[in-house]
Amino acid sequence: MEKWPGIWGSDAIEKMSMLVNSVLIATKRVSKSRSCFGYPLSIFFIVINEFCERFSYYGMRALLILYFRRFIGWDDNLSTAIYHTFVALCYLTPILGALIADSWLGKFKTIVSLSIVYTIGQAVTAVSSIHDLTDANKDGTPDNISVHVALSMIGLLLIALGTGGIKPCVSAFGGDQFEEGQEKQRNRFFSIFYLAINAGSLLSTIITPILRVQLCGIHTKQPCYPLAFGVPAALMAVSLIVFVIGSGMYKKFKPQGNIMAKVVKCVGFAIKNRFRHRSKEFPKREHWLDWAKEKYDERLIAQIKMVTKVMFLYIPLPMFWALFDQQGSRWTLQATAMSGKMGAIEIQPDQMQTVNAILIVIMVPIVDAVVYPLIAKCGFNFSSLKKMTVGMFLASMAFVVAAIVQVEIDKTLPVFPKGNEFQLKVLNIGNNPMNVSFSGEITTLSPMSQTDGFKTFDISKLPTISISSAGSPETSVAYNFEKGHRHTLLVWGSNEYHVGKDGLNQKPEKGENGIRFVNIYSENIAIDMDGKVYENLMSHRVSEYQFFPSGIKSIKINSTVIPPACDSELQSSNLGFGSAYTYVIVRQTDGCPHKEEFLDISPNTVSMALQIPQYFLLTCGEVVFSVTGLEFSYSQAPSNMKSVLQAGWLLTVAVGNIIVLIVAGAGQFSEQWAEYILFAALLLVVCVIFAIMARFYTYVNPATIEAQFDEEERKKYLDKNTLFGSLEPTTQTQM
């Protein structure tokens, strides 16, 4: 009893009271001097930081699939696999960030440290996209692509560590800046914070694709990936600088220990203890976590029970994210086979992702203010888990629509040779009609005309091909045709012909247009089309294809035989998306050049606008699934374990992207629409399973449960004080 006065004596209490009062006064002064419109001034730095960081992340991610496909040269499946591996890492590393912040550095230092890593990663990724870095022969193509691959992988690894690591810290750090009694301001802060995320995402997915299609380079002009990646890198640097500038205004708390570690240890002990007492002589306990009571208090066990109950419901959720995150991979690749012309504007394939961001901004207030109240008025009990089930169903239907759109795209795609097949087209570039015979089947071509598309032949059953004109004998065409390729037979006389291999056995990538030239001048010519040069094109020969974006391009013919008075500058037609043309340069009677145009591959005709319904369905699914899921997790989590459930929620996103890796790697579908249907069917099955699980879920009120423990602890405390109160007079009397 002698120690009690030393601890709780009047001097100690007085000193403690003075200390608390001084801290409160100082806090009020700081809050008053560093507030703006009733909000801590520090949160404005945090909101700007989040806007810049989200601009950086989503701007970079919007380009990623096309960078893999077009710059590095990977096929669709490998590009999709690497893309989703990166996204999965971005949602796995938040667990690491939470551990670092809670156990070691604290939120502020964790954000600063990992933001530096993040900025370096963005810079390295931008450097990896500089084609001149290894382009020693200055032909516009990197000579050592492995250097670019290595740099990009290092950059993406650093980005995943940075963006994932700061994800669980920034919003919580913003919430820490508010004082007691500022709950209203804190709630508004989170709304502003969410708006900053969407604003950054929306602007970046509009701007960075525009930067990508610009041409830049030291020796040759290529799509400007360095600028498109460089701007997000610069925004990340700005994000870091802005956050550090506000350092003196932040309320910073020391690491308090990681609750996730306590949860893991408690669960581990319960499992181990249950295993030790697995024989029948030990009575069963109501819940398997009750086996941790020997070491851990009942409050912690009760809190973990609530968490594990919600975590069990998380098991089916990754399938939703497996579909949702394909906006940036499969759906973007789908858009490359479509036409981006929408009225007076032209959309790039990677800009279609902005539809989701735009619809989110529109749909969230409409659903909250109109849809949900209408459902409530109709008397339906539209609980959180029912909303999430509907969200899964809508996402599944979005992929059914994507499959229908893909079928429409496939109808417009040209047929290319497969296996032992080859294809042949005949182009008459002479001044007289020509007869072409395929094993006796004769086709007559008028001057400056071609056969109706490409004819397909089996190389093992090679037809007899011959040409002739009126009054002349047939001339057999001798050429070693190659399987799997298209060929063009140029004819201009009864015994004058040339066969050229097209070198284009698929639709032009990137939505660009392949252009090649045929020279009918008797001398060599050089052609400059929009900065790309076709050098020394021989007479009656066909050039290789070169590729151009949409629009009208200038064509300049250079030759010594063209009279000076001639206008040697021509114009292409208005190029669309994914087409291929042969331009025949004809010498007119006055010696001036003229262009004849022949279509080799039709441009994309299916409009990207047809993707809007699938984006609309997926966004509606996101609104009722993602937003509701976060609210549900928050409402069902104990006050000190909301970060644990947040980490679990982010983990479902990571697992969803891993599912895409498995399906894309193992599926190997010959038709893309079939893969879309598979994903839709899988999510539909999962939707049914989740609905059954939700049917048996019992909602809890963590605050009520924790209040019961608080009441029990208060009673124990009062009982203890009563005991000490009855003992103290007795002791004094005895003394």
From TrEMBL:
Membrane topology classification: Multi-pass membrane protein
Organism of provenance: Chrysochloris asiatica
Subunit structure comment from the entry: Interacts (via extracellular domain region) with trypsin.
Protein name: Solute carrier family 15 member 1
GO BP: any one term: protein transport
Biological role stated in the UniProt entry: Electrogenic proton-coupled amino-acid transporter that transports oligopeptides of 2 to 4 amino acids with a preference for dipeptides. Transports neutral and monovalently charged peptides with a proton to peptide stoichiometry of 1:1 or 2:1. Primarily responsible for the absorption of dietary di- and tripeptides from the small intestinal lumen. Mediates transepithelial transport of muramyl and N-formylated bacterial dipeptides contributing to recognition of pathogenic bacteria by the mucosal immune system.
Known catalytic reactions: L-alanyl-L-leucyl-L-alanine(out) + H(+)(out) = L-alanyl-L-leucyl-L-alanine(in) + H(+)(in); L-leucyl-L-leucine(out) + H(+)(out) = L-leucyl-L-leucine(in) + H(+)(in); L-methionyl-L-phenylalanyl-L-methionine(out) + H(+)(out) = L-methionyl-L-phenylalanyl-L-methionine(in) + H(+)(in); glycyl-L-glutamate(out) + 2 H(+)(out) = glycyl-L-glutamate(in) + 2 H(+)(in)
Keywords, comma-separated and alphabetical: Cell membrane, Glycoprotein, Membrane, Peptide transport, Protein transport, Symport, Transmembrane, Transmembrane helix, Transport
TM ranges: 37-60, 80-99, 111-130, 145-166, 187-207, 227-250, 306-324, 357-376, 388-407, 615-635, 647-670, 676-697
Gene Ontology MF terms: oligopeptide transmembrane transporter activity; symporter activity
Keyword Phosphoprotein in annotation: no
Family annotation (PROSITE patterns): PTR2_1, PTR2_2
Pfam family, one: PTR2
Gene3D superfamilies linked: MFS general substrate transporter like domains
Cell location: Apical cell membrane; Membrane
Similarity remark: Belongs to the major facilitator superfamily. Proton-dependent oligopeptide transporter (POT/PTR) (TC 2.A.17) family.
Matches recorded under InterPro entries: MFS_trans_sf, Oligopep_transport, POT_fam, PTR2_symporter_CS
Entry keyword annotation includes Glycoprotein: yes
GO cellular component, one term: apical plasma membrane
